[in-house]
Amino acid sequence: MTARLGRAYNPAMTLSIGILGLGALGTLMAWHWRDHDCMVISKDGKPVFRQLVTANNTDQLQLAHWQNENLDWLVITTKAADTLNAITPLADHLHRIKRLVLLQNGMGQQAAVADWLSTQNNPPELWLASSTEGAYRQNRSDVVYAGQGQTFIGRYQEGLVQNRLSHDSQECNNCDFYLPMSTVYAPDMLDKLRHKLAINAVINPLTALYRCRNGELVTNPDYRRHLQLLAAEIAGLYTFLNWSLPWNLLTQAEQVATATAANQSSTLQDVLQQRPTELPYINGYLLAQAEQHEYALPHCAELMTQLSNELICE
């Protein structure tokens, strides 16, 4: 069976895109998709105003509230723990949505959403996305574009069931739909999610523990030793589970931390704002996988206990 892939973005093709979860990443994607018909699902049913601050400009975004129009894509950018609660109220409107995309940190929520969709009438296709873009909220309405990256997107079945296709094409010219602007088709989404999970599992909890920016994990000798221990332990789990990594985890984590030295991780931002973090879907997910296979992660477990005692994990 030939997999149906999406065509790369065509400037002449305007897509209807809804966004649920207009935080830092959701706002950044809305900015990327400003030439599409982009809408937001807001809590109060009103239009939403945002400003995207780049190195050269401050661009204003006025996003209309979705009024149950047909959508080519509905992109979920909520916190992982909020996913099901966020999409459940949309059950009666799923027939209006062609494709639902989870663009979030962490793992575990994807399977939960797939299970929920399987119980619904006329469910949309489930897609997954992972982004290396950097953004953070400066205040309630302003988001800073902190680092350019890539956003990969692929079907759930291809990523978590088939895992691999027999080719590596990023688009298909015989399909009847287009990918959103600034996204790249990826047939190996499971690998991409696991790669990002490994980096997040090393950097995010340590920035939360030490209340530090990313770069300090490399420049502070004590923090760096902790980084080394955690990276070695998580890399060992990946090897045990036969989960591939395209690079040495410690080396890559240090490179990412250095390249984003001034950035606050999303976990640290949550901690500073006294919000629940996504660590249960990052390190917590890895601990669950390790327990299932009777593999010990003592440093990861101790770290999660420390953070839980500080009341920053759900």
TrEMBL record:
Keywords: Membrane, NADP, Oxidoreductase, Transmembrane, Transmembrane helix. Residues 17-157 form the Ketopantoate reductase N-terminal domain. The keyword Secreted does not apply. Coiled coil: none annotated. GO terms for cellular component: cytoplasm. Signal peptide: none annotated. InterPro entries: 6-PGluconate_DH-like_C_sf, 6PGD_dom2, ApbA, Ketopantoate_reductase, KPA_reductase, KPR_N, NAD(P)-bd_dom_sf. Residues 189-307 form the Ketopantoate reductase C-terminal domain. One of its GO terms (biological process) is pantothenate biosynthetic process. The chain crosses the membrane at residues 12-33. Its EC number is 1.1.1.169. GO terms for molecular function: 2-dehydropantoate 2-reductase activity; NADP binding. The keyword GTP-binding does not apply. Belongs to the ketopantoate reductase family. PANTHER family: 2-DEHYDROPANTOATE 2-REDUCTASE (PTHR43765:SF2), 2-DEHYDROPANTOATE 2-REDUCTASE-RELATED (PTHR43765). This is 2-dehydropantoate 2-reductase. It comes from hydrothermal vent metagenome.
